[in-house]
Amino acid sequence: MYADFFGLKQSPFSIAPDPRYLFMSERHREALAHLLYGVQGGGGFVLLTGEIGTGKTTICRCFLEQTPENCRVAYIFNPKLTVVELLRTVCDEFGVQVSHQGPGEVTAKDHIDPLNAFLLASHAAGQNTVLIIDEAQNLSADVLEQLRLLTNLETNTRKLLQIILIGQPELRRLLARPELEQLAQRVIARFHLDALDEAETQQYIQHRMDVAGLHGPLPFTRDALRRVHTLTTGVPRRINLLCDRALLGAYASGQHRVERAVVDKAASEVFDTLKRSAPTRSRRPLASLTLVATGAVSGALLVFAAMHVDKNPVKLATEAGAPPSAAAPPQPAMADPAPTDETTAPATVRDVEPPPLVEVPAFSDLLRSETLAWHALGRTWNQSIEQGEPCATALQHGLQCYRTGRMTLHGLRQLGRPGLLTLRLPGQPPAWALLVAMGMDSAVLQAGERRWQLPLTGLADIWRGDFATLWRLPPGQSTRLVDGRQGLAAEWLNTQLGTLQRDGKLVPGAATLDARVQAFQRAHGIDADGLAGPVTFMQVNRARGVDEPRLQPL
Known about the structure:
Number of strands: 12
Structural class: alpha/beta
Largest sheet: 7 strands, mixed
CATH class of the largest domain: Alpha Beta
Radius of gyration: 27 Å
Mean pLDDT: 79
CATH topology of the largest domain: Cathepsin B, Chain A
Strand content: 5-15%
CATH architecture of the largest domain: Alpha-Beta Complex
Low-confidence stretches: 273-352
């Protein structure tokens, strides 16, 4: 209902577990890594727990999309079953034929014998077999004991079945019971998924809005974002419910910014606990605002038209532009390792003091030559590229230029590096400024010795997505790189991805360079086409701590 009003392609806060909207906080990345470890873990149990709505099922769906080709997975989402029903379901999921001879009903042994034969055949064919059980806190003690017995199916060198249990915190208490001690001892990895902190809550909201097509500043005020975190305690499902209703309320009132009062009013509808905690306060249901009067909604639409909101948001670019926002948060995707012979600590744009807040810089203060803009960018890399054509000179220093006309605010955060913005002030030709720092609702631009801190609303008025930056080529690469899956660049890339794989930050089943590139792209929100282009190399550089300037946070 409100998507067009806010310049979105679709509703950003559906509670359906859509992997496209998965926000990969550091905790979510660790949770996914635990599941990926379960693919190659050699048998036993992997345990993933978390409060209701923290994103366990969505992470599981993302995991299913990343399982290697040699992995056979069975997924059970309704575990309220008897022992025989569970075994029948497992056999059905793996396509195992069950037969019964003699009188009476089908027994557990009728299922276990053909299942064991299937697991042995899969092992002989070089395949790993994984059983995932969601909502596992609903499993009975006797069913859990049968699952433990299934992990007894093994060869002389390894167990034949890996079992991943996903559930609410009660699952941990269930496994702590004395009668299940033998099962608890077979848990080879366990992870508890906590709710988001305040900063991650803001990043989560920004991420979902960007995936939904937002092209411009976030329509939530800072106070509103803080209030959302307080009311939801950082639980993603609660955030979705509250933000969806808050956007609806702002739309019905003709407001393009969601204020704290709108969030409070939305919370009074979607959270019964808030109503009980303040029974004497009168609140007007937000949903009813859409039915108050035709004139009110019409007025809102007129405000919308007058403010000239862009109804065709630019898509996130892939290797030809900005990386998609599917699974990448604004913060670094993974911790940078300590410097080695090949990598050094990442550089930053130094000494960015908080500049004065202004609406927009004057045209006379901006860089009116793109060549001068590239020279300024080169200085952030401590490189002089002022002799000859800037990009050709940069190449001589092991740096490559990168340009796109389809960058977004989220893409700027995801790349996390200084770059050139092409600005278009009213009635003036294009001009340039260097982006040096960025926060949730403002950015710092620099031209010469002057800096401006602009609200993102002001930046969106004068910037249409034209962005350029530099990135460091792999060692030994002296020519412009388009697809680095050949030559010295491929050797370097394979080494870096192999290190990430050994560190558990990349799916372990990816054996070839193409498979590793695709696995890395999926994990970092890049279009998983397998092509190792500039955006992929920039994100590998970031993950491996290659010496490159970084945007400063605000």
